[in-house]
Amino acid sequence: MPKVGMPKIRKPQLVQATMTVIDRVGLHAASISLISKEAGVSTGIINHYFGGKHGLLEETMREILRQLSETITGRLRELPADAHKQRINAIIDGNFVGFQAENKVAKTWLAFWSYSMHDQQLKRLQRVNERRLLSHLLIELKALFAKEQAEVVAHGIASLIDGIWLRGTLNPDGIDAEKARTIINDYLDKQLTFYSQK
């Protein structure tokens, strides 16, 4: 975590530099030296405020998660509480458009996703993100399905979001938000039909 009193301009500057360097050379080669050079600061600034590379990586992931959360909650605030399918689409879109769809952000996400399997703090942040996604989905899905079925569908949608996002990140053409929305809505419509016939 960055120390209290860090100039507000420095933190975003270092986070952006971290993502730029990860985009260019990958997570393992993203050294403090390269990041500080990209940000135009001394390596001592990073060590002082973040305690080294790991602290800066953690703050970068926190910033990506903050941006994701703000995008989704902002979109949900604009919609009526009973517009459940529209609200589900707002959650889907939040994962595929804007900041999250930027190439360097997507590559940083992918690097963290892999790295979090071997790092407890990053794994914890990844779990927080997963729980938040499921929570957002369940609020809407419980209005459309029984509780047990809503949980199954929420996990299905979350898996589709992750899978489509992963494929899009590895695709040179990037993430296609419209296609993601179409695929996930097709799944949702089939689940609504299936459970309504039971």
From TrEMBL:
The keyword Transcription applies. It holds the Pfam family TetR_N. Keywords: DNA-binding, Repressor, Transcription, Transcription regulation. GO terms for biological process: glycine betaine biosynthetic process from choline; negative regulation of DNA-templated transcription. Pathway: Amine and polyamine biosynthesis; betaine biosynthesis via choline pathway [regulation]. Residues 8-68 form the HTH tetR-type domain. It comes from the Bacteria. GO terms for molecular function: DNA-binding transcription factor activity; transcription cis-regulatory region binding. InterPro entries: BetI_C, DNA-bd_HTH_TetR-type_CS, Homeodomain-like_sf, HTH-type_TetR-like_transc_reg, HTH_TetR, Tet_transcr_reg_TetR-rel_C_sf, Tscrpt_rep_BetI. Residues 31-50 bind DNA. Repressor involved in the biosynthesis of the osmoprotectant glycine betaine. It represses transcription of the choline transporter BetT and the genes of BetAB involved in the synthesis of glycine betaine. This is HTH-type transcriptional regulator BetI. It comes from Vibrio hepatarius.
